[in-house]
Amino acid sequence: MKINIRVMRQAGPHAEPRLVNYEVPGVSEEMSFLEMLDVLNERLTARGEDPVAFDSDCREGICGMCGIVINGVAHGPERTTTCQLHMRSFKDGDTITLEPWRSSAFPVIKDLVVDRSSFDRIIDAGGYISVNTGAAPDAHAMPVPKPDADRAFEAAACIGCGACVAACPNASAMLFTAAKVTHLGLLPQGQPERDARVVNMLAQHDAEGFGGCTNIGECAAVCPKEIPLDVISTLNADLERAMVHGR
Ligand code: SF4
Ligand code: FES
């Protein structure tokens, strides 16, 4: 296939962004989307031009590093990570537009690479959990109801990619924050700091400049890990609980 790429290029954090067109011939359906970009970058490097900067690490959908708005949709046309998207989702002659995640809390570093350290600071604000050390506890000494274990596991699947922010018209990171709050708030180990965790993580979310949630649901629609929208209800319930406790 021959693919036409229109990519938003930005030389640095304060440079003017501009859309640049490239042709990428010799693309096979079996290539991953990032392999197609590797082919483009090899061609640019061979011509002495600056390759297109983009993030990736595991390339198997688990690390959360990759993320590109592809034809206006965070992670593109399939419900998956950018690295797990394949060129069989496109056809010969297609023009594909690539943009970085857009949010003031995710400033552009270069081209398609954004700074997502705001997510790290939200997690930092959640703090540690109190766990008694000592001899290994007996198996099943701390029973967790199956529905709670399942929901905590579902929330723990969040890989911190930031697609939820990129898709949200409010640039809210509430799905991400709620996934973290839900994950620990349902487990016995998460109880001692449960109130402080939700209050502090939400305060950091707002301080980073993410917008508020107005229940639009675009976040859950693009989330590659299918984090459900109702984790935000769990977060709100935890926040009310913390307020009742005087936090
Ligand atoms: S909630 Fe989904 S879209 Fe948002 S950071 Fe986590 S995995 Fe990515
Ligand atoms: S590169 Fe790790 S999730 Fe895409």
TrEMBL record:
<protein>
    <recommendedName>
        <fullName>succinate dehydrogenase</fullName>
        <ecNumber>1.3.5.1</ecNumber>
    </recommendedName>
</protein>
<dbReference type="GO" id="GO:0051538">
    <property type="term" value="F:3 iron, 4 sulfur cluster binding"/>
</dbReference>
<dbReference type="InterPro" id="IPR006058">
    <property type="entry name" value="2Fe2S_fd_BS"/>
</dbReference>
<keyword id="KW-0560">Oxidoreductase</keyword>
<dbReference type="InterPro" id="IPR004489">
    <property type="entry name" value="Succ_DH/fum_Rdtase_Fe-S"/>
</dbReference>
<dbReference type="Pfam" id="PF13183">
    <property type="entry name" value="Fer4_8"/>
</dbReference>
<dbReference type="InterPro" id="IPR050573">
    <property type="entry name" value="SDH/FRD_Iron-Sulfur"/>
</dbReference>
<dbReference type="GO" id="GO:0051539">
    <property type="term" value="F:4 iron, 4 sulfur cluster binding"/>
</dbReference>
<dbReference type="InterPro" id="IPR025192">
    <property type="entry name" value="Succ_DH/fum_Rdtase_N"/>
</dbReference>
<feature type="domain" description="4Fe-4S ferredoxin-type">
    <location>
        <begin position="149"/>
        <end position="179"/>
    </location>
</feature>
<keyword id="KW-0003">3Fe-4S</keyword>
<dbReference type="GO" id="GO:0046872">
    <property type="term" value="F:metal ion binding"/>
</dbReference>
<dbReference type="InterPro" id="IPR036010">
    <property type="entry name" value="2Fe-2S_ferredoxin-like_sf"/>
</dbReference>
<keyword id="KW-0408">Iron</keyword>
<keyword id="KW-0411">Iron-sulfur</keyword>
<keyword id="KW-0001">2Fe-2S</keyword>
<dbReference type="GO" id="GO:0008177">
    <property type="term" value="F:succinate dehydrogenase (quinone) activity"/>
</dbReference>
<dbReference type="InterPro" id="IPR017896">
    <property type="entry name" value="4Fe4S_Fe-S-bd"/>
</dbReference>
<dbReference type="GO" id="GO:0009055">
    <property type="term" value="F:electron transfer activity"/>
</dbReference>
<dbReference type="GO" id="GO:0051537">
    <property type="term" value="F:2 iron, 2 sulfur cluster binding"/>
</dbReference>
<comment type="similarity">
    <text>Belongs to the succinate dehydrogenase/fumarate reductase iron-sulfur protein family.</text>
</comment>
<dbReference type="InterPro" id="IPR017900">
    <property type="entry name" value="4Fe4S_Fe_S_CS"/>
</dbReference>
<dbReference type="InterPro" id="IPR012675">
    <property type="entry name" value="Beta-grasp_dom_sf"/>
</dbReference>
<dbReference type="InterPro" id="IPR009051">
    <property type="entry name" value="Helical_ferredxn"/>
</dbReference>
<dbReference type="GO" id="GO:0022904">
    <property type="term" value="P:respiratory electron transport chain"/>
</dbReference>
<keyword id="KW-0479">Metal-binding</keyword>
<keyword id="KW-0004">4Fe-4S</keyword>
<keyword id="KW-0816">Tricarboxylic acid cycle</keyword>
<dbReference type="GO" id="GO:0006099">
    <property type="term" value="P:tricarboxylic acid cycle"/>
</dbReference>
<dbReference type="Pfam" id="PF13085">
    <property type="entry name" value="Fer2_3"/>
</dbReference>
